[in-house]
Amino acid sequence: MNIAVRYYSKSGNTKRIAEAIAEGSGTHAVSITDEPTLSERIDILFLGGAPYANVMAPELRRYAECLVRDRIGKVVLFTTSNWSHRTVKGLQKILQVKGIPVAEGHFYAHMLNISGKLDAAREFGRKYGSNNCLQEEKV
Ligand SMILES: Cc1cc2nc3c(=O)[nH]c(=O)nc-3n(C[C@H](O)[C@H](O)[C@H](O)COP(=O)(O)O)c2cc1C
User: Fold this and answer.
1) Whose CA is nearest to atom 31 of ligand 1?
2) Ligand 1 test: best mutation among 19, 32, 111, most atoms within 8 Å of CB?
3) Rg, C-alpha atoms of the chain
4) pLDDT 10s digits, 70-92
């Protein structure tokens, strides 16, 4: 199974969660600014970002808008923030319009508790990566 972890992160919180998910699922986390396109078909794409002044970064929006249905099995979302899950909702909307399957659950970490969520993020990645069975994160 081909698994990829992609994220957008300004100040490093989402990056840390992305790296933990990647560790759990046996892959590497890559910033969408370093690699703006997927070079191969991906079965499970973990995709994450954060809200800034109530909206997701335009870079992440563009990335999601350019994903190709035929090249992705399913997207699993994650986010970090102060309170908002808006990034996940925004991404769900974009991906659903494109017909790209999105897992129902998503992973959330509060910006002040990133370290405290790293084990859970690893576990989230591990469960999804190892047996394709999403354990939804309670938020
Ligand atoms: C300029 C700015 C605006 C923010 N706006 C929001 C917001 O509207 N809602 C929210 O829940 N968190 C907001 N946050 C908190 C960030 O989403 C949070 O710190 C997140 O973990 C940042 O992720 P990153 O370190 O990967 O960039 C904001 C942070 C900054 C710096």
Assistant:
1) 52
2) 111
3) 13
4) 999 999 999 999 999 999 999 99
Q: Which residues contact 137 (CB under 8 A, 6 or more apart)?
A: 105, 106, 107, 108, 120, 124
Please give the domain boundaries of the chain with CATH numbers for all domains.
Answer: 3-131 (3.40.50.360)
pTM score of the predicted model: 0.94
How many whole angstroms separate alpha carbon 38 and alpha carbon 122? 23
In the chain the beta strands, taken as DSSP E runs, fall at 3-7, 29-31, 42-49, 51-52, 55-56, 72-81, 102-110
Out of 82, 87, 110, give the residue to mutate to test ligand 1, the one with the largest number of ligand atoms within 8 Å of its CB: 82
Burial category of 46 from C-beta neighbours within 10 Å (exposed 0-12, middle 13-18, buried 19 and up): buried
What are the C-alpha distances in Å from 36 to residues 12, 17, 62, 78, 123?
18, 19, 10, 18, 27
The pLDDT tens digits of the residues spanning 1-15 come to 899 999 999 999 999
